[in-house]
Structures are given as structure tokens and as C-alpha cells.
Amino acid sequence: MKSWKRWTIFCVVLAFGPQQLLAEERHRYGVSQTGQQAKPEMVTDAELALWGIVDGCLNSRLVHYFYVLNSHAAVLELAGGKKVLMRFHGDCQGVEQYGFVHTAQNDKFCADSHSIRVLQTGDRCKVESLEPYP
């Protein structure tokens, strides 16, 4: 009888565990189950400057590494260990599978005026915002 209970608990955890983890990840990255982004909290200019974001622009020389969270956002890891969340306007198709490249002008990469290019497809996705990422 005890082995039957163990298998039942195992099956329930197996069936519902991944959905809970996925929901936690969506919440953590500000994306709802429908794919819509949560509204970012208001951050002062002084707080943004601590992450290297000035007037909506980031010095591209600070970017050490990046990784794509989903088709709506990527995280830029800065040389000092801080991270910046880069949100895309709408759904950036293919960015999760192929990654992206970006071009900075005068060592600046700016929200609302720059875009990224998806590798393999060449599609462009406009950058909506650059925000501090915990």
C-alpha cells in the first residue's frame, strides 16, 4: 500500500511540477501566461545610472554577456556583475532559438531607437526598454 501512495505522489509531482516551475519563471521575468509583459516599476534616473543606463542608453562596452529569457526579453550581464533586462516591442520570433546581435552607435545601445537582429533569420526586433535586473 505504501508503494502505491509513493507512485501516486510521484505522478502528481511529475504532472504538476513543471507547470508550477514554468509559472514561477514567467512571473520572475515579468511575462504572464498569455505572453504579455508585466509593467515595469518606475525607477529613478539615479538608480538607472547605477546600472550604466543614462537617458535610456547603455554603454555597450559594459556588456560582458547576454542570454535570452524568452521571445519578449533578454538579460545583459555587465562587466561589474550587474544585469540589465532588455525588453523587446512585441514578440521577437526566433530569438530564443537563434540568439541575436546588435550594433551600437558611439558605444551606446538605446531603448526605443535601437533594435537587435535575430541570427539565421535576419529579422529585426526593436528594443522597448532597458531596466535594472535584480
Layout of strands and helices, then pairs:
Layout: H1 2-28, H2 45-50, E1 53-54, E2 57-59, E3 63-70, E4 73-78, E5 83-88, H3 95-98, E6 100-102, E7 108-110, E8 115-118, E9 124-133
Antiparallel strand pairs: 1-2, 2-7, 3-4, 4-5, 5-9, 6-8, 8-9
Q: Which key features would you list for this structure?
A:
single chain; 134 residues; alpha+beta; 6-stranded antiparallel sheet; 3-stranded antiparallel sheet; 9 strands; globular
Profile the largest sheet. Answer: 6 strands, antiparallel
Q: Tell me how many strands there are.
A: 9
Strand coverage percent? 25-35%
- The H/E string reads HHEEEEEHEEEE
Distance between the termini: 47 Å
Helix content: 25-40%
**Overall 3D form:** globular
- Order of strands, widest sheet: 3-4-5-9-8-6
Show unreliable segments: 1-29, 31-40
Number of continuous helical runs: 3
Mean pLDDT: 75
SSE class: alpha+beta
